């Protein structure tokens, strides 16, 4: 997503100012994980390929944070299965 003047045509989007990461739909992630990862990338201001190139460690941190949500769900599921909830 980019910011362009209100009166600019959509064709000017390629020269607009990025205001967040692109859609991650093309990665084929489950919906909840896609949203969590997008939010993590947004929070770290990883919006362009140059941002990724500059700091792969931040991308890895975003991935870990997004997957942590799923890991917590798995942990709770195991606790429930073991009768510890």
Report on the architecture of this protein:
The protein has 3 helices and 2 strands. The chain is mainly alpha-helical and about 80 residues long. It has one domain (about 25-85). The chain has a two-stranded antiparallel ribbon. Helix 1 crosses helix 3 (about 55-80).
Distance between the termini: 42 Å
Order of helices and strands: EEHHH
Which structural class do the helices and strands define? Answer: mainly alpha
What integer value in Å does the Rg equal? Answer: 17 Å
Low-confidence segments, given as residue ranges, are none
Number of domains: 1
Largest sheet: 2 strands, antiparallel
Give the helices and strands, then pairings.
Layout: E1 2-3, E2 17-18, H1 31-43, H2 49-54, H3 56-81
Antiparallel strand pairs: 1-2
Helix pairs in contact: 1-3
In short:
With 85 residues, the protein is mostly helical.
Give a quick set of tags describing it.
85 residues; mainly alpha; two-stranded antiparallel ribbon; 3 helices; elongated
């Amino acid at each position: 997503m980019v910011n362009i003047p209100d009166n600019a045509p959509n064709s000017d989007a390629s020269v607009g100012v990025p205001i967040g990461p692109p859609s991650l739909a093309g990665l084929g992630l489950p919906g909840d994980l896609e949203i969590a990862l997008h939010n993590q990338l947004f929070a770290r201001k990883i919006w362009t390929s140059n941002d990724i190139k500059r700091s792969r460690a931040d991308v890895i941190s975003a991935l870990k944070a997004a997957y942590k949500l799923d890991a917590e769900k798995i942990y709770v599921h195991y606790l429930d299965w073991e009768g510890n909830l």
